[in-house]
Amino acid sequence: MEQEQLLPAGTARRGLTAADVRARFARRLPGVKLSESARGDHLLSGDEPPANLTPAAVLVALADHEDGLSVLLTQRAANLADHAGQIAFPGGRLEPSDPDPAFGALREAEEEIGLPRSHVEIIGRLDTYITGTGFEIAPIVGLVRVPYPFQLQKSEVDELFEVPLDFIIDPANHQRRTRELRGRTRGFFVLPYRNRFIWGATAAMLVNLAEVLNA
Predict the structure, then answer these.
(1) Which of 88, 63, 93 is nearest to 76 (CA)?
(2) Which of 170-173's residues contact partners 24+ apart within 8 Å by CB, and which partners?
(3) What pLDDT, on the 0 to 100 scale, is given for residue 37?
(4) What are 114-141's pLDDT values in tens digits?
(5) DSSP bridge pairs for 87
(6) 18-214 has which fold?
(7) Spans of all domains in the chain
């Protein structure tokens, strides 16, 4: 299985350490389903949440490099029927056999990018996120020991890359935008990074991560 440090060489990193991140999540109450702490596309656009939500989980994976932390993200395959080419966390819908969202997030990460669960230390979760497409997502946060092996499932993932955590937690990089969709004005977050366009649910969950770590 190939190994690679995915952040471009020479990228400066500093700031929060793994110990800092553990401490901030240790002080935080876990997100709960469909409570006032739940977030979602509907809140950004002033709508009601979708009915008949499908449980899902994603892994917000923080690679613990010697010179700083970074967030692992994927670019979805261009030939997918839904959300083709978009930037996302490893993850997907929960299976009946998953005992909890953390197990499901680790299972999906292993299936999509070949990240062994033995390389991941689960430290907490972000607020539940409800998408406009009807998914109720549990974002599970974990620290990833490096170097880590990976193997992309090319039918679902075109690329795996890293973004410095310092970029993610800087509020100056969080943009709010709107667009017209089926006659309605939709609001969403955008985090432009280099030649990447991180937006939608992924960007909103990264903003939530930044709020927790900046508290």
Answers:
(1) 88
(2) 170/210, 171/210, 171/214
(3) 57
(4) 999 999 999 999 999 998 888 999 999 9
(5) 75
(6) Nucleoside Triphosphate Pyrophosphohydrolase (3.90.79)
(7) 18-214
